[in-house]
Structure formats: structure tokens, C-alpha cells
Design brief:
Elements: H1 2-17, E1 19-21, E2 28-30, E3 33-36, E4 41-43, E5 53-59, H2 64-80, E6 85-91, H3 101-107, E7 114-116, H4 121-126, E8 134-139, E9 144-149, H5 156-167
Parallel strand pairs: 5-6, 6-7
Antiparallel strand pairs: 1-2, 3-4, 3-7, 5-8, 8-9
């Protein structure tokens, strides 16, 4: 029993040290480092809480909806990166398919960082159910303001609106500064 409690305490200590406060933000951000497909090291803390909006998407080479979502994200990235958008695609592929990640990213024309989570540390923190695709949007304070799992092409416009809203400073993926229009129902006479 004592060993079990020590193991739990050690695990909790390790998990709590994996997160550091975001600069200028009230939340915490992971200080994990992941290598991209070219071997360059990226620290998640260099993105989350330092950009106006960060989209983190988890994908895999075998995931068909991921292959639909990533080109949509690329188009949004091309339009919005100058306004402070960063997109990070984290591949969850195992050793048997990891070698295909770079080729598939190139084939899709992805210009944002494509990272390899070889030991599943980012997945453990941000996608513990290992859903693919799994997307999270972080605001400039490093808070997760929107998440979704799965993707269908019909979701593309909604996703773009959510990202644009966060770039404008909207909360919860909705542009809180824009007044919402209420639709009035017009009573119809049945005369």
C-alpha cells in the first residue's frame, strides 16, 4: 500500500512540474518540447499564451477525417497568420507509421509546424482519450476556449468563425464584442 501511495505521489509531482505559468496569462501552459518532422525542437510554451490564437490539432496518418481537416486549417492559416494565428499539428502516429508523417504533411501542403509526439506527453495532457482528430483553440491568455473531436467538411465554416472570433478577442470561441441579432418571429394571421 505504501508503494502504491508513493507511486501516486511521484506521478502527481511529475505532472505538476510539466506545466509552468504562461507569461502574462492566468492559466498554465505546458512546457513540453516536441520535434517537428525535420528534427527541429519546438516548445509548446513558445506558442500557447504568446500568440493571439493557437490551434492545436491532434491527428494521425491513418485518420481519414484528419486528412479532411488539415487542408482546411492550412487555408485558414494562410489567411490569418499575419493577424496572430498559429497552428500546431501534433501527429499521434506510433513507430510503425511515424515515418509517413512528413510525407503526408508535405503532400497536403502544410506550412505550419507538424510535430511528432513520440512519447505521447502532449497527448496525455491535451488529448487523453486519444481522439483523432482532436482540436483545441487557445486564446492569447493560454486558455482553451474551444474544442472539438472529429471533423466533417460541413464544419469548416464554423471552425473558421471560431478561430476568427478568438483572433478578435472573443470569449469561448464566440465574438463577444459583436452584438448578437435576435430573430423575431413574425406572427402570421390565418384569416
Amino acid at each position: 500500500m505504501k508503494r502504491y501511495l508513493l507511486a501516486i505521489a511521484a506521478t502527481l509531482a511529475a505532472l505538476s512540474s510539466a506545466c509552468v505559468p504562461a507569461k502574462g496569462g492566468s492559466g498554465s501552459v505546458s512546457h513540453l518540447s516536441l520535434d517537428d518532422v525535420d528534427g527541429k525542437r519546438h516548445y509548446l510554451s513558445d506558442y500557447i499564451g504568446r500568440k493571439k490564437a493557437v490551434v492545436m490539432t491532434f491527428w494521425a496518418t491513418w485518420c481519414v477525417p484528419c486528412k479532411d481537416e488539415l487542408p482546411v486549417l492550412q487555408k485558414i492559416y494562410e489567411r490569418e497568420r499575419d493577424r496572430g494565428l498559429e497552428i500546431i499539428a501534433i501527429a499521434m502516429d506510433g513507430p510503425e507509421t511515424q515515418a509517413q508523417v512528413g510525407a503526408q504533411a508535405q503532400q497536403m501542403g502544410l506550412t505550419f509546424p507538424v510535430l511528432l509526439d513520440t512519447d505521447s506527453r502532449a497527448v496525455a495532457l491535451y488529448n487523453p482519450k486519444r481522439a483523432a482528430p482532436m482540436l483545441r483553440i487557445f486564446d492569447e491568455d493560454g486558455r482553451i476556449v474551444y474544442s472539438h473531436t472529429t471533423f466533417r467538411p460541413s464544419m469548416a465554416r464554423k471552425l473558421e468563425r471560431k478561430i476568427t472570433s478568438v483572433l478578435r478577442g472573443g470569449r469561448d470561441g464566440d465574438d463577444s464584442r459583436r452584438p448578437r441579432r435576435r430573430r423575431r418571429r413574425v406572427a402570421q394571421d390565418d384569416d
